[in-house]
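User: Hey, my collaborator sent me this sequence without any context and asked if I could get a structure. I don't really work with proteins. Can you help?
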Amino acid sequence: MDAEKPNILWIITDHALHYGHHRPGEFELHRPHFEQLCEEGVCFDRAYSVSPICTPARSSMMTGQYPSRHGQRWNTLGFPPHNRNDFATGQMLYSHYLSSAGYRNAYIGKWHCGHTRLPADYGIEGWSLPGYGAHYQCEAYGQYCKELGLGMPTALIEEHRRISEYKGKKLVLHSDVDTDWHFMDSFGVLQGPPEAHEANFVSHLSCEKLKELTQSDQSWSMVASFWGPHHPYIPSEPYASMYDPSDIPEYPSFREIYKDKPFRHFIHRDLTYLGKMDMWDWDTWSRVLARAYGQARQLDDAVGHLLDTLDETGQADNTIVVYCADHGDAAASHGGLWDKSSTCLEEVVRIPLAVRWPKGFKGGRTSNALVSNMDITATILDAACITPQKDMQSRSLLPLCLDEGDSSWPEHLVCEHNGHHDDILQRMIVTDQYKYVAALLDGDELYDLKEDPCEMTNLIHSPELEPIRRKLRSKLVDHMKSNEVMGMGSGKYTEYTPGATQLMHSLALQVSGELF
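Assistant: No problem. I've predicted the 3D structure and written it out in structure-token form, which is a compact way to encode the shape of the chain:
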């Protein structure tokens, strides 16, 4: 192994309950192993998803490019005919750069960056599944259960948002119905020991691969990608009972009535579930969150097992560990939401992010810089002393980790959202205090996050904030002109995002009163 090159362990979680759920003094949601990484490394307290949907975010992490550049703007098999279901031929991934520098690369777990091609098709070792991946049905999980004598995965379904007859039943997750998706909108308890849970399954495979990699003479990288804590919220015991629903206070925005909010918020809360079920009251939601928090804790312990394995190999000191999520989770927020949708709520776009590298920098710091999970790509390449191609839009976090770049780091961050189950094009820009969301054919949003962290008051029509609106719109125009829209800026970028040109021109008109 090249002593000058760090190994790379990249932990990706899915759909994390993060922003707003840990409220010191009111309710504390502890994830001990993530917290330990923060204490030993650098915690990025203002980290965002570059695009708060699985495939776009994950593909941006793999490429270091915005979804508008790599083309996977919706989840794989998304409805738009112009959406990519796999990376374009010749697309450079993080692994291509590392391989050229002599790294051995592995990927374990959820991929969701392509419908037909998997990590193995890009020269990456390991195990994954096509599309979202039916992990409780796959052959590898079945073999794992057989070796441990676990039997078939069975869950007690306590509530289901769409299929009322599932309530109170114990169902085998891979045989009673056709697919994992039948259980997606439910919560309950996975029967059997913790080892039966997806988080423990992925952790087991990751640990085995990690042991193999560390026995090689090559520098290595490994992605351990979990399906959790994404719903269905079905932790096993003792995690299922770790949180008492009566101890969980009502979420601050639970009773929001959407005053002055754009139509897409109503789509998420009301129209998505119209005719399927009544809205849950807080008593039900507290039970949902008790299971969700238990599942988050079970995932955290599975991550801890992986970190313990890294320690046992003796290579932790020169291994850069990155922990992140692809996006957040709106559960129980803003009127009682489930899942994510075509909104840029802080609960959906904010993510946990920590970086640890004992040999590279001191730990115990928190950075408030505005960063995204797309920036991880440039970070790991920077640590490996690799210069990426100029079309990479990711920025290395290492200067922030070294406490050298806070003053020069950009004071704003732009994220993309192209919709989920509906086609609502949005571009979000956030600063230290304000967040502005521009939408095509729907209303815009402006929030003062310092005064209104729960985003209850849309200030888009506030006369006092006209200079702020104009400034943020102008910055969005500049960003889209340089990074997204064909024919603008350098003119070399392909527009994968129909509607981006219209949105940019609309913003420019509002800024200057004329089109360019």
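In plain terms: Confidence is low (pLDDT under 50) at residues 487-495. You can pass these tokens on to your collaborator as they are.
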